[in-house]
Write a structure and sequence with these properties.
The chain is built from 24 helices and no strands. It is mainly alpha-helical and 488 residues long. Helix 9 packs antiparallel against helix 10 and helix 20 runs parallel beside helix 22. The N terminus and C terminus are likely disordered.
């Protein structure tokens, strides 16, 4: 894109699991028809699926005579004996064909029981397996084990994550223990299976006893994944309970709790997980659920996630729903999401939708739409801006346009920012452009600053890199905050 083009067009011169997706197959909802077939409910403690892939009864023969990946009949032939479990592990480990290896592993998981899971774990650990694929398999193993015997699975995963496994270290990344350190992915996977098995209360009690708050937060993600799959309503109640506890702890600490002020709200992240699951049930069910949440950050997170999840299926329906709530604070991120999605393919439609909104939502929608439009076609966006008369909406649009353009063409971005009517918005936008310009071409930025129109003290802060300037989260692939230009 050419700088001159952007300048001439201006009449005034011119921005978080998973991990357990496969577990949806391994641990179906307790009480569901599939749970009854597979024996993964509270009553049945095995994972067998009779007749799923054919084969006879009985599972692996005593002594582990599996005959390789084809030696044992299909998942669901019944539990594997303790004596035969080692042979089934070997069948998985020795198979070179990836499809057959996955089939052998599925057979292993399908034959797990409380009695043989520990032996299977020891055989897998003794194999010395490493690598990303083996790590994924172990995640699934611990999730399956957690659904059968949660306490044992979690305790074994904790020992491994704390470094008492094969390497004698801290569960090296890519090795048997997965990503290292206390609270590794295998612990979360085991907790997910435990919580989904119908015994979430016991899993929650185990996590509640963990003293390290960072570990506890990570482990709770495992609990939430399992509960979300098996009982979204119970998961919602649990998150609201956690939020109340967190608020009380924050009041006692006087600083908002362990995570407040650190840019991370775990309860909102938990609610986003549930929102994603609710979105799978369709807009009617998801919207009814979200609307019933208490107002605040978690409701905001739920609305935003539902809008993002369903916009690709029926953007018009999602836009209608978000419009109905657009005057509420909790819907502002959802407003941004809809505007961004529309602007990606139909910028004019996005702006028309934004014009029909009121108050903060209107400005929010314009900002997000121009953010996306600038990414796609900055020249066309600048042409539209040149037709707008001075107004708060134009100020919002120009601010978004300028801060989206500032790394590619800071001179043009600065010229556009200088046309903003509102003094506060103009100074904030110019300062943002200046800081970005200093990162990309400090010499040119320093030459421009004296004539920028920025107050002297702001210029000095920009030059010194102080004044509370935020990092450019585009350098890290995103960030938090509203309005499309995240983290700025």
């Amino acid at each position: 894109m050419k700088k001159r083009t952007l300048l001439i067009h201006g009449a005034w011169v011119l921005v978080a699991a998973g991990t357990f997706a496969a577990g949806r197959f391994l641990a179906p909802e307790p009480g569901s028809p599939r749970a009854a077939r597979t024996g993964t409910g509270v009553e049945g403690r095995g994972l067998g699926q009779p007749g799923l892939l054919g084969g006879g009864p009985g599972g692996a023969e005593e002594g582990g005579k599996t005959g390789g990946s084809a030696g044992r009949s299909a998942p669901g032939d019944g539990p594997i004996s303790v004596a035969g479990i080692k042979g089934q592990v070997e069948a998985f480990l020795k198979e070179k064909d990836p499809v057959k290896a996955n089939l052998a592993f599925a057979r292993l998981l399908a034959g797990l029981t409380e009695e043989n899971a520990g032996a299977a774990y020891e055989a897998l650990k003794a194999s010395g397996g490493r690598g990303r694929d083996f790590g994924r398999h172990m995640n699934l193993f611990f999730q399956a084990w957690g659904g059968i015997d949660g306490q044992s699975a979690v305790e074994a995963a904790m020992v491994e994550s704390e470094g008492e496994g094969r390497d004698g270290g801290r569960g090296g990344r890519g090795g048997f223990g997965g990503p290292g350190g206390p609270g590794g992915n295998n612990v979360m996977a085991a907790l997910s299976g435990w919580a989904a098995s119908g015994d979430s209360e016991a899993a929650r009690e185990w996590v509640a006893a963990v003293e390290d708050e960072r570990q506890k937060t990570m482990f709770t993600f495992g609990i939430m994944e399992g509960m979300t799959r098996s009982d979204p309503d119970a998961a919602t109640a649990y998150v609201l309970e956690l939020a109340a506890e967190r608020a009380a702890a924050g009041d006692q600490e006087g600083e908002g709790g362990f995570y407040r002020g650190r840019g991370f709200d775990p309860t909102s992240r938990y609610m986003e997980m549930i929102a994603s699951e609710q979105a799978n049930r369709g807009l009617a069910a998801a919207s009814a659920w979200a609307e019933g949440l208490p107002e605040g950050e978690m409701k905001e997170a739920a609305f935003s996630r539902i809008a993002a999840s369903l916009a690709g299926e029926d953007l018009d329906a999602v836009a209608k729903w978000v419009t109905e709530h657009s005057s509420q604070d909790y819907a502002q991120d959802a407003v941004s999401e809809v505007a961004r999605r529309m602007a990606n393919t139909e910028p004019a439609k996005a702006l028309e939708w934004a014009e029909g909104l009121t108050g903060a939502a209107q400005s929010q929608a314009f900002s997000s739409a121009f953010n996306q439009w600038t990414d796609r076609d900055a020249v066309a966006a600048s042409e539209y801006l040149s037709t707008m008369h001075a107004s708060p909406l134009r100020d919002s649009a120009v601010s978004s346009f300028a801060t989206q353009l500032d790394r590619e063409d800071p001179e043009a971005a600065a010229a556009w920012a200088s046309t903003i009517s509102d003094v506060t918005t103009r100074v904030e936008t110019l300062e943002s452009v200046a800081r970005s310009w200093m990162r990309t071409d400090s010499e040119a930025a320093q030459q421009w600053l004296p004539a920028s129109g920025l107050p002297a003290e702001v210029q000095q802060e920009v030059l010194s890199g102080g004044g509370g300037g935020r990092p450019d989260f585009r350098d890290f692939g995103g960030g938090g905050g509203r309005g499309g230009r995240r983290g700025r």
